[in-house]
Amino acid sequence: MSTAPEADVIALSSGRPLTEEEVQGLRRDFPMLQAEVNGHPLAYLDSGATSQRPLAVLDAEREFATTLNAAVHRGAHTLAAEATEVFEDARATVARFVGADEGEIVWTSNATEALNLIAYSISNASLGRGGSAAERFRLREGDEIVTTEMEHHANLIPWQELAARTGATLKVIPLDDDGALRLDAADEIIGERTRILAVTHVSNVLGVINPVEQLVASAHAVGALVVLDACQSAPHLPLDVRALDVDFAVISGHKMLGPTGIGALYGRRELLEAMPPFLTGGSMITTVTTTEAAYLPPPQRFEAGTQRVSQAVALAAAIDYLSGVGLARIAAHEAELGRRLVDGLTAIDGVRVLGAAIALPRVGLASFDVEGIHSHDVGQFLDDLGIAVRVGHHCAQPLHRRLGVTSSTRASTYLYTTRAEVDAVIDGVSGAIDFFRRGA
Amino acid sequence: MSDLQGLYQELILDHSRTPHGYGLRGEIAAQSHQVNPTCGDEVTLQVHRAGDGSIEAIAWEGHGCAISQASASLLAELAEGLTVDDLEVRIAAFREAMRSRGKIEPDEELLGDVAALGGVSRYVARVKCAMLAWVAVEDALHKA
User: Alpha helix (H) ranges present in A260-385?
Assistant: First the structure.
């Protein structure tokens, strides 16, 4: 089996990989990484599910709560004004991080909510809400929404539901036997009827970085909007939504050293300006009568209710931390770990790394199937060694089904992951095979 | 015996490799399909009754981890020849042990080899695996 060509990895990540000393230095910032699990030092290889948080993030949240806590965008007292300022500063930090303007970033609870926000706004437009400005989003029977067989359920089910509500048809770009997106089929599927293309930047199961530019070009050529799931790319690679030319992108705070309960939607300004709201209520209006309401411009139009201020502030601290290390260097570190992981696992008899044969650059993540041993059992064995991995379908049942497995074991790295931890996973999988095949 | 060896006793690995009662039958029987949503594991289970209403056999198919497969196999072995009431008593006892977080050892006299699954109760995340077939048999009996 071939793995990603070296040249692609280097081109992708122009940074130098982190040295062992640098990684050890970073690890001291993460209290959770000092933990012991089942009598072993924790080897945390589940950052793809949720990352650990550095002290700077925890401190930022605490500092906000102890010195500035107040509701934002309401009230005229000093604290309210200061809280609003740091809240908006945090938005600007996210905007800079993804290459957008601050008015183009909407806070959400998580990436799932961000995707639902887009889908429900389009749904509301399809019901005639948002007036003539929102006409461009209206879906009708015959319109097509295109997604892929690779998606996390969060970037699939909202589109299934949107199609069901509007009469549009959902089309799915299939995968080839290796698990790669079939770009030949994508060319056939994306056509005059396509209104939306929703695709993930990096697969949360395969770790491959999809050739998004090509898909964006096809979608834009037919006037479709592109929604990018950047949950697994924003934490690990330099991300520039303008360079990628996507119309929407979603990110998740807790996968990028931030707290849970915060995510963000990027939307091109002119699109957000024309979209009707999803959640409605306080803080997103201008004038309200008992019969109707007029809405604020974006981003506030999409931020009904009391906002997650301390989480937003903490996410900004997480972004500052990541930027301090440098995303190019993080990407280079993880490309190296990802290769080590894939090569080491592939070399074990009976282990199949999903997507290992795809000739695309990847992040530091690998999911694998061990012949005759269920992922839960592999994960349990690793857990006994203090190694935390994800087992199951990773919210991507169609992808697993396509690759002929029900579930897999996933090891995912981050900037704080050491080479020794990657090797521990590889040795642990060998140990699991010996353990479960004993007496057989 | 380490915790892990206690969880995955030889008896459990043997049952997961050569399961008892595996293979659904064509005849009509009370049936249930259960899925563990966190991992996608599933079981389809039939309760076949003898003329006197007792359990003639449990037939099942499915895929999943060693714990879930062994548990279905052990259940099929245990249930054979029991009355429905007797099986329900055993389901309740098994559930109580599984939910006890290691505090209650399964009653070997009542549950026989099923008691080998006792180690599962200390692993909260795995209790669902062990319970999958038992939830299915309960559901099938209620439907009957």
Answer: 269-274, 309-325, 327-346, 375-384
